[in-house]
Amino acid sequence: MSLLGTPNLPFWQRFNLTYSASLSVIIDTITMAVTAIYWARVGLAASPALQVFLAIHMLGCSVELAWRWQCGKASDGGSYARYRELPSLVMRVNDALLGPMVLWPRALLDRLPAADGSSAKAGTWAVASAATRHAALLLFGSATTGQALSWAKPLRLCLAVPIHLLMTVNMARRFPTVCAAACLSTPAAQQRTSAAFRLLGALRYDMVRPLGSEAQPKLSAQSECIVVLTYLELTLGCLLPALIQAAAETRLYVVHCAERRRAGLPRECGWQARVHDELAELAQELSWPQIAVLLWVVLGIAFDLSLLAAK
After folding, report:
1. Could you list the residue ranges that cross the membrane (predicted)?
2. Which of 10, 153, 270, 281 shows a CA-CA span of 20 to 30 A to 101?
3. What would you report as the CA-atom Rg of the chain, rounded to the nearest whole angstrom?
4. pLDDT, position 232
5. Global confidence as pTM
6. Long-range pairs, 193-199, Cβ under 8 A, ≥24
7. Contact between 205 and 299 (Cβ < 8 Å)
8. Contact 154, 135 (CB under 8 A)
């Protein structure tokens, strides 16, 4: 993706201008369509919190579409390019505060069929199919996909990371209810969740193991489920998208700085510019093996944090 706008514009204005020219209309239109369909299905019987949640999303997307169209003729993107993040920020906060409460009710999970243990004696294909289905249930129950998709409407990391961490904390508080759903609480489902828990624990970088502690903590079946869901939410829904966005932002910032240098303009100032400078320097110094080791350590820390959610 090339960086739009002229070098004399601030980086974040060019970033917003670039984003608005590529994904904004598509994502907002899809969000409005999905929200409208869901709202039509639940109707007036939905809870007040759900009504507010859906209304905020519809209003936010409508404002963004109208605002972008109004400023579309301006070469610098107008006020939309400068302040595009405001409605996105409101909708992201809405997701963090109301989303976990209204989007993942126990009744929705209880409608899903519960797994049985028949595949354990079946062939390899049946076992793989059952494992894949259970993995999909875990991803759905953790709301990982929804949180990951919200990163498609990027906010600057200093805003996005705290909001997504708040979303993760709020979701983790509801995971005991999620893990008690029929599709995740049968003996067969708990056995598969326990296998996932043991696998994640065995693969992680464990900073405590060299001190002589137990390699794997002893938890109940529900606690193991909570740990797995929290880990998925924290890693796939928060940390991994944040790393991807950090890499994309840094790459565009390097392009922006090079264009300003060629135009004879000074480097941008401020703490956000310094953060991007440090990230760009770090990206140049690290090799892929070092990045892999750091990622392994970070995932291990994420697993240890997920263990705290089950206590």
Report:
1. 291-310
2. 153
3. 22
4. 94
5. 0.84
6. 193/134, 193/138, 193/221, 193/224, 193/225, 193/228, 194/221, 194/224, 196/134, 196/135, 196/138, 196/228, 197/224, 197/225, 197/227, 197/228
7. yes
8. no
